[in-house]
Design goal:
Blueprint lengths: L1 H13 L6 H13 L5 H15 L7 H11 L8 H6 L21 H6 L7 E4 L16 H4 L14 H4 L7 E5 L13 E5 L15 H22 L12 E13 L10 E4 L2 H4 L3 E5 L7 E2 L4 E8 L4 E8 L15 E7 L11 H13 L3 E5 L8 H4 L7 H13 L8 E5 L26 E4 L3 E5 L2 E5 L4 H8 L1 E2 L7 H11 L30 E3 L7 E5 L2 E5 L4 E2 L2 E2 L1 E8 L2 E8 L1
Parallel strand pairs: 6-9, 10-11, 11-12, 12-13, 15-17, 17-19
Antiparallel strand pairs: 1-3, 2-23, 3-14, 4-5, 4-8, 5-6, 7-16, 8-9, 10-22, 14-15, 18-19, 20-21, 22-23
Helix pairs in contact: 1-2, 1-3, 3-14
Amino acid sequence: MDGLLGELVVAFEEMGVTINEPVLDRCVEICQRYNVLEAEEFVATWMAYSLSKLQGADPTVAYLDKFERDEYRKKGKENRNSQNDNRKSSLVIYEARNKEVDVESDSIMKVYDENAAKGKISWGAKTPDHSRKPKSRSSPQAVFSPASFSPTITSLSSKYTSRTNSGEVVFPYKNASITSDKDFENFTLEIERLNSVDIPRYMNFDLVEALDYADEKIDQIGNILMKKYHMDEVMPVRYKHPSPFLTIGRIACDADGRLNSKSAMLEGSRDLSFGETIQLDLGNVEKYSVFPGQIVAVEGVNITGDKLMAKQIYCDASPDPDPTSSRGPLSLTIAAGPFTQSDSMTYQPLLDLIEKVSSEEPDLLILTGPFIDSTHPVILENSLAETYQELFRKIVDLIMRPLQSKKTQVVMVSSYKDCNSQFVYPTPQLPLKDRHYQNLHLLPDPSIFKIGGVSIGVTSTDILLHIGKEEISSPGYSTDRLSRLSGHILSQRCFYPLTPATDAPVDPSFMEFAKLTIRPDILILPSDLRYFIKDLPGCVVVNPERLAKGLIGGTYARLNFTSTGLNGNITRI
């Protein structure tokens, strides 16, 4: 188990966690007892458990004992949501499964249809001249208090209010000093619309259409790989030949369990391979990183006709950089939901963030959902005494009233986890009536847009964690894991390339809208994984983590494009 021991150390370090010897020994003991062979699988399971039940705490022997009881001694993992659904309440109101969704039937097409919106939204709001007087603010409870049948949810969170590390820079990126050297007055926000498709009925799953899209994607990415790697000829996946040849297909798993080096399959397209699949042997590939749904070109041999013995994997089909990008100058603040603690609905972290933004006035504030988290205990217990739309309007006012006279443009990106959104990915923009703020822009998930010459791609969905659960890589893969996971989004030209999507309500009919058609200057991928700002070729990837984490506050990101380059940091709220 010496190899596993070393792999555990590396896997934890990639997540930003340093463990001592007793903790490491306990990890190895659990792996041996429950036949966990992959260090990354164990660490990914621990990280998900820690974030959901321990507020992101680092592993200790005591925590690992609890982790073992909860995760490994049970025959199957229980669904927390189903547990909450079984709770009996005398007040049956506005349940998460009976969400009020104020969206017209064809709204999802309007969100993405490039013919309905020509791709440009005018941002011409100017900051009026006036004397700014500091406003005194009472407690957050007085400022924001949703209607509720439970008085406890409007009380302040003691763990959050007693924090002592507010404003601490936990991750400096290059020069951590954040300043703005340009005052935007008039400019346009250019929304890059994804290809419009004629879907007459919302969420009408058409199996033939889904198969056609999956097949076309293999051919499209395959053609890009052939051109990039100068491949003259490719053969069907089941082509039998003792000499090396090239073929193209989608990575799949031969069983319902997690992908591993022995269960990998390669699924070919109908045009090239008649839709056939073949077992893929990765044992002789020096360097690989694959996951289910990934489109790859494989060089290998097939002597028996039943197994493709791979020699090399080609997978980088990254789009070209935006040729019109001017790289700023631009200052922006990025935060991801949830925006309130699990024991309160006062939205204290969001209030504190808006106070900072109002003072600093960045050019752009990007907020990704969920704004009303469907997994919040208050929502699951049916304790709200107002509709989700009414609560969302309050949240929008909380954000926009302090900023409506500022130069800051505000982008709010929807999430399928929002109570007032459609439970589907890609997700249309959040519905909002009777609120008109000139500097507010509601965008779908995912979105690509441009501001001040800087192109930005953003999603609210935790694709990094989802891929991280399924991805396997060769031993000693040199690239750090978080950069590798982020790179998959670019290399597959898709915000959600994982197939099948077991952790998100992906509708194959709408996956045209999840295409990443350009390489953005900034790619925002919020995740429960450790916060980071990383440089990929031609792109800066940002994970601000969560503004609220359980009972405590989380982090947010700040970036600044200037004439001399890019700097930024991750800061505790």
